[in-house]
Q: What sequence folds into this?
């Protein structure tokens, strides 16, 4: 019997299925239309369409947008919060800031849990962890009865200073469970045991509101897969770049809030390393949005400063991904000042671009690419046919006539604005972080990434663009390249010059014990466990910290301080050797290693391929006679020069004039942006 692995990435327009044969490493792909009302239906449609025998599947990995969409749309079950008396409004007060500081009329959204469902009880813990006042259990039981009558579906418990002593929170959970045994209860001392009340309360609140939605979805999907013959655990990709089983979803549901975008970053990093580029920028352009990620020295950047909705941070470690509203379906429009804009409004999966023939008459990036000849007349292997006449009409009416431009000039203007938006996103994640884009390769994927990747790279002086073999389903491939992973952290505030190495070592050992227990709960064998330590530090007086790696045994703090100075200099371009350094937090990443299938390598035989045809493609106001290649016909060692178009089932690659391309042993196209 064959053994296969299946990965699923649910996007706004398409659901991508990546199917890998464990023995040969061969990959085949399927795309099916997403079903936003019930994402599971698109998954099962893809399984049927791909003729997947689930009894032969050894791993089923899934990047899901269920939690993300629930938070964005606020289609959330009724959830309650129990707080220390006097602190029910921490999540309402937030940080008293705004996303757009100068917009008087734009308010920050309300908390996910309204004030009427945020109740309080008397209890108090000191900043040192001493219980100054035990939980008022009589009041706690009254609160439990009230919430039971309100028929809430989930509860968050957030007490002051519980990050140093969670005894009162744990007791509150016990009382709530006595009244409502089957209700998910998230307590902040377990979800996010760190200082800063708002961040801790907000993360726990997000975790609580997501729990019923995610648990229901995961349970239903697991049952459908099991009924169809799948015998293993469903693996769910989380924001930190690992996977977890349904056993952990109930307690850490908000970790799935960044699930969908993490897959592409993982795949991008893997492909960059595979091609010999440990420094790579992921450029994932789909139908609605573009996700930009960065890997440095083979590792993804991790952040804890992220959110789905401004004002409500989710402090679980997450791969840093910058998302902007620029995709194949992004609409071109004219602002009040008369300037041409592109996105973030999108034509969506339906009606889609004008050339999809579903009634949209506003030009999109896809329509502009059709007009310029960069995109052919069919997508997804002929499942979607494009109408060039409708694309021409949309570009003419949306941009050419209002701006007094010739048709092709208007189409190029649409693409230029989109590329500028995406180039700015890359700058924000690279130059503003202290990284020079010229030191990186750009990994272009997603349904539209390879169409725009070379132009964006040229604008940023990035020397090499990598286009994976299956750009449209590369994010799904990322789901096959991950390990089981959990992150543990706790506040450890001390002066680095006086802290005891033995004290820090003891704190790490205690966390690592919890990490091993969690991995064991996930079914990971002892020999497949790996633990990674980090210490977060800052110059005294700062409030933002930087993380540095810590050794398995800490005998001196001096190497950690030196590593912090180096990281601070790289990030901010200065260091202060004479300034005292504070330790803020310690963390452990627990990894359960999942065996990876090997990507097959082909023999490289240099040759110049014969194009299947030629067509006129516009660049810089001039129509060029461009060679058109079929991706399946480009074997390892193929070399060709632009202008050229490479078409395939899930994407189209554009090689502009003056650039050259080769196919490597893993069948990636490497485009050199300088002639």
A:
């Amino acid at each position: 019997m064959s053994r296969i692995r299946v990965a699923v990435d649910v996007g706004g327009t398409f659901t991508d299925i990546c199917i890998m044969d464990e023995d040969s490493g061969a990959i085949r792909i399927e795309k099916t239309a997403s079903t936003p009302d019930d994402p599971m239906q698109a998954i099962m449609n893809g399984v049927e369409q791909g003729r997947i025998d689930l009894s032969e599947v050894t791993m089923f990995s899934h990047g899901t947008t269920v939690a993300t969409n629930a938070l964005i749309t606020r289609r959330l079950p009724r959830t309650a919060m129990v707080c220390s008396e006097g602190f029910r409004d921490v999540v309402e007060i937030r940080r008293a800031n705004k996303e757009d500081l100068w917009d008087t009329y734009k308010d920050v959204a309300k908390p996910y849990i309204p004030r009427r469902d945020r109740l309080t009880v008397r209890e108090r813990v000191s900043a040192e962890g001493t219980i100054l006042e035990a939980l008022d259990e009589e009041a706690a039981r009254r609160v439990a009865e009230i919430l039971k009558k309100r028929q809430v579906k989930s509860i968050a418990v957030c007490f002051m200073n519980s990050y140093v002593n969670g005894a009162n929170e744990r007791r509150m959970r016990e009382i709530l469970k006595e009244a409502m045994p089957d209700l998910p209860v998230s307590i902040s001392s377990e979800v996010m045991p760190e200082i800063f009340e708002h961040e801790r309360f907000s993360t726990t609140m997000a975790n609580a509101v997501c729990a019923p939605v995610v648990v229901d979805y995961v349970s239903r999907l697991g049952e459908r897969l099991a009924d169809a013959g799948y015998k293993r655990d469903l693996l769910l990709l989380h924001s930190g770049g690992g996977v977890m089983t349904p056993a952990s979803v109930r307690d850490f549901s908000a970790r799935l809030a960044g699930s969908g975008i993490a897959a592409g970053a993982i795949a991008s990093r893997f492909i960059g390393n595979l091609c010999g580029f440990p420094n790579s920028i992921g450029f994932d352009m789909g139908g609605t949005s573009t996700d930009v990620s960065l890997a440095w020295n083979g590792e993804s950047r991790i952040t804890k400063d992220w959110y789905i909705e401004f004002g409500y941070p989710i402090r679980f470690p997450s791969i840093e991904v910058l998302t902007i509203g620029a995709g194949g379906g992004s609409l071109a429009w004219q602002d009040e000042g008369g300037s041409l804009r592109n996105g973030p409004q999108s034509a969506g999966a339906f009606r889609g671009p004008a050339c999809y023939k579903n009634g949209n008459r506003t030009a999109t990036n896809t329509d502009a690419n059709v007009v310029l000849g960069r995109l052919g007349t069919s997508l997804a292997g002929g499942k979607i046919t494009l109408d060039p006449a409708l694309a021409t009409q949309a570009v003419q009416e949306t941009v050419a006539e209002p701006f007094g431009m010739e048709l092709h000039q208007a189409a190029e203007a649409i693409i230029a604005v989109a590329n500028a938006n995406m180039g700015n996103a890359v700058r924000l994640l690279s130059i503003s972080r202290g990284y020079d884009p010229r030191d990186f390769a750009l990994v272009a994927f997603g349904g539209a990434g390879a169409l725009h990747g070379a132009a964006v790279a040229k604008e940023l002086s990035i020397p090499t663009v990598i286009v994976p073999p299956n750009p449209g389903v590369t994010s799904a491939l990322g789901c096959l390249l991950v390990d089981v992973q959990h992150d543990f952290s706790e506040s450890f505030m001390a002066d680095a010059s006086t802290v005891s190495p033995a004290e820090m070592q003891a704190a790490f050992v205690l966390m690592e014990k919890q990490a091993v227990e969690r991995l064991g709960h996930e079914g990971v064998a002892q020999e497949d466990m790996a633990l990674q330590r980090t210490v977060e530090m800052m110059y005294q007086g700062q409030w933002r910290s930087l993380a540095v790696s810590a050794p398995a045994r800490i005998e001196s703090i001096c190497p950690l301080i030196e590593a912090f100075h180096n990281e601070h200099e790289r990030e901010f371009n200065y260091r202060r050797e004479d300034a005292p350094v504070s330790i803020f937090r310690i963390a452990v990443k627990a990894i359960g290693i999942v065996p990876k299938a090997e990507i097959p390598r082909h023999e490289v035989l240099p040759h110049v391929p014969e194009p299947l045809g030629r067509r006129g493609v516009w660049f810089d106001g001039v129509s060029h006679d461009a060679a058109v290649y079929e991706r399946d016909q480009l074997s390892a060692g193929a070399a060709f020069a632009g202008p050229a178009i490479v078409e395939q089932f899930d994407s189209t690659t554009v090689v502009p004039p003056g650039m050259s391309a080769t196919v490597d042993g893993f069948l990636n196209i490497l485009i050199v942006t300088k002639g």
